[in-house]
Write a structure and sequence with these properties.
CATH architecture of the largest domain: 2-Layer Sandwich
CATH superfamily of the largest domain: Ribonuclease H-like superfamily/Ribonuclease H
Shape: flat
Pfam family, one: DNA_pol_A_exoN
Number of helices: 19
Helix content: 40-55%
GO molecular function: 3'-5' exonuclease activity; nucleic acid binding; nucleotide binding
CATH class of the largest domain: Alpha Beta
Strand content: under 5%
Number of domains: 3
CATH topology of the largest domain: Nucleotidyltransferase, domain 5
Keywords: Exonuclease, Hydrolase, Nuclease
Strand order of the largest sheet: 1-2
Domain HRDC: 164-244
Largest sheet: 2 strands, antiparallel
Region (Disordered): 239-263
Length: 343
């Protein structure tokens, strides 16, 4: 973890050596934290007892300014005319001890965040968007991470190749076995067993330990270490009764994928087109990316099943309840309300 504070320099702190850093939070006090893409860092920092009292997210600020590129290196180059070295960005940061060049790279990553914040803030003020940014930053203070996915195993790459419910059960069983091993070893699941291997095993369904051992997916040393776990997972899936097999499609209480709307509900599909058009117009008028103006998920939910009351006040209340910020509600509630009405 890299910390830089004006007048104090840069500090590198190893959270593995100090699993509870709440005392460091006391030292931070109510000072504003400057982070880039805060949603990536906040859940990890909370795990070691660190939570900001105030926040400035340079990446989110760049989005509100509708800059074409909002990565840290791009913003530093745009505002400060400097290039950030990124040669160790893909390194294995679980390595201990960390090599000196890696430590220097980590320190330089936060070297100019203070100056970058000032430059970005000046543009926000000039664009009249500093109030919007403050609302966005304040909302991030309660961010704890994305909501848990229902049936996360369904996001296995190439799962669309699976044609039977029994094979889906094998994917699910192998996915959970791999996830448990990865959690125990504190490593990325893909290092334990690649998604491609899970799909291949589900398709082949080896019916004996010997068949599994000789399967091409087990040639690598990594997967071979856990042969018994994989075979047990496959056996469990093969032994399930038919009524416990997963369905081919994921059930959801939310709207279906937009591509299916025309067949399922043409009226809703037409509403979605109208609402998206007005959102795009308002975004262009305010020089914003449409997804930062209003959550696309909120747009889909309103278009699929709009409230009985389509007045701007009712739509504003609906958006606020879903979590939209005040500035967003003020800009889009009227246009969306008008677009929801069937012409």
């Amino acid at each position: 973890m890299q910390v830089r504070r004006e007048g104090s320099g840069t500090w590198l702190i190893d959270p593995i050596a100090f699993p509870d850093l709440s005392e460091l939070g006391l030292a931070f006090g109510d000072a504003e934290w400057i982070l880039h893409a805060a949603t990536q860092d906040l859940p990890c920092l909370a795990e070691v007892g660190l939570r900001p009292a105030s926040l400035f997210d340079t990446e989110l600020a760049g989005r509100l300014l509708n800059l074409p590129r909002v990565g840290l290196a791009a913003l530093v180059e745009h505002y400060l005319g400097m290039s950030l070295a990124k040669e160790f960005s893909a390194a294995d940061w679980s390595t201990r001890p960390l090599p000196d060049p890696w430590l220097e790279y980590a320190a330089l990553d936060v070297e100019v965040l203070l100056e970058l914040r000032e430059a970005v803030l000046a543009d926000l003020i000039a664009a009249g968007k500093d109030g919007w940014a403050r609302e966005e930053f304040d909302a991030l203070l309660s961010f704890t991470g994305p909501p848990p996915r229902k049936d996360p195993w369904r996001r296995t790459s190439s799962i669309h190749k699976i044609r039977s419910r029994r094979a889906l059960a094998i994917v699910r069983s192998l996915w959970h076995a791999r996830d448990a091993i990865a959690a125990d070893r504190d490593t990325t699941p893909g290092r334990i067993l690649p998604d491609a291997a899970i799909v291949s095993l589900a398709t082949q369904a080896p019916d004996s330990f010997s068949a599994l051992k000789n399967d091409p997916t087990m040639r690598r040393r990594g997967p071979r270490r856990f042969l018994e776990d994989w075979f047990s997972a496959i056996e469990d899936a093969m032994g399930l009764p038919d009524d416990e097999l997963p369905t081919s499609g994921q059930r959801s209480d939310g709207p279906p994928p937009p591509r299916a709307w025309a067949d399922k509900d043409p009226v809703a599909a037409a509403r979605l087109v109208r609402v998206r058009e007005v959102v795009t117009q308002v975004a262009e008028q305010n020089d914003l990316p449409a997804e930062n103006l209003i959550s696309p998920a909120f747009v889909r939910a309103l278009a699929w099943q709009p409230p009985a009351d389509l007045s701007p006040d009712a739509i504003a209340a609906d958006l606020a309840e879903r979590g939209s910020r005040t500035w967003q509600v003020q800009l889009v509630s009227g246009p969306i309300a008008a677009a929801l009405v069937d012409p």
